[in-house]
């Protein structure tokens, strides 16, 4: 594993399961459980990681490694359930929240797929869970294009070649491999870091990068809504919201910025409603969010690993005017892009990946989970999904609802995935800390409605200082 992948694996405990997930809704009729198992089994040769489990190196002298699971049984990973009548969306969300709160068994390959029957209108669903140490959002979407079909044409797969797992390495072999990597990895990765640093130094970008870091640090000095931070329990609430992508693009076209700027402004409105309902809203209140940014190159698509860095944005929830909220969001994201902060964060991640010993990584990965922090209140991740229809066994995918995990004192987070003209918002909350999660969810929709009304006939917003 890379240092980042290993961190996701080592951070996990009973109260912080660190899998990402998707609840995918299909047109009916539902296939049989046996047909689903056979279809998924036929795809497994394309994703060999799905038959591997994590093996630790003795004494944490090396990072965890992937080894074939000689006891792999697909029936453990592909599960079957049904909703009671009438099979509403609310029932599906409640079921999904319970399933998604359960930690994946670390002794087995780190994924599950649940077949869910009994939805209204003859629909059915899949709940797909995979550990964050295996995939980031972009890699997860690549995986979807492997597991799903691009056409409604479907033939039931026949029996594939028997799978023969490789022999599991001994502790001595793992230690020898860790020693070899300790020597070769720093040389290889320091070269990569040097190349990244050189790219930042091109022309006048070094000055912009340094000043951008200074401004980013200043944003951390702003008082944020630390009342949202706190300990996390083992249970989760989860809800979703659907937004037409055309509406978001219309706001972007009328007011400027990017689709992600509009999304962050809408999420800001949701947190404004949440804090206002709790009596914790002030004019200068901000909610600080981590925004993952993909660094996956075109030649890395399909690889099951994490290639992300994070930038930070202060969501201006204390601002009443939706246009001003969008302006302030856009100023920050424009600054992030001009100063190349994401590339700098990625370079720092690579340097840490080189310099931090595995034993220290194991210890450091667990410290943030144990300590309360009030610096970052949430995570907002926006993953571009396919704009073309996907199918499983001839059934069309109609909805894709994402799930993002919680950790490090962050009790609420939002994932957004686009699919066929719709943005699907999946909002995860700690069960005890977020009984009012629906206020946030409805506030996101309300925030977009405000922007749509404000954009009607408005001029594009020019960020201050431009």
Which helices and strands occur, and which strands form pairs?
Elements: H1 3-11, E1 19-26, H2 33-43, E2 52-55, E3 65-68, H3 74-77, E4 78-82, H4 89-101, E5 111-117, E6 124-131, H5 137-147, H6 171-201, H7 205-221, E7 236-244, H8 245-255, H9 259-277, E8 287-294, E9 308-315, H10 322-339, H11 341-355, H12 358-370, E10 378-383, E11 391-392, E12 395-403, E13 412-419, E14 422-430, H13 437-455
Parallel strand pairs: 4-5, 8-10, 10-13
Antiparallel strand pairs: 1-6, 1-12, 2-3, 5-6, 7-14, 8-9, 11-12, 13-14
In N-to-C order, the SSE pattern is HEHEEHEHEEHHHEHHEEHHHEEEEEH
Largest sheet: 6 strands, mixed
The low-confidence runs, each spanning 5 or more residues with pLDDT under 50, are 137-142, 202-206, 295-307, 342-352
Strand content: 15-25%
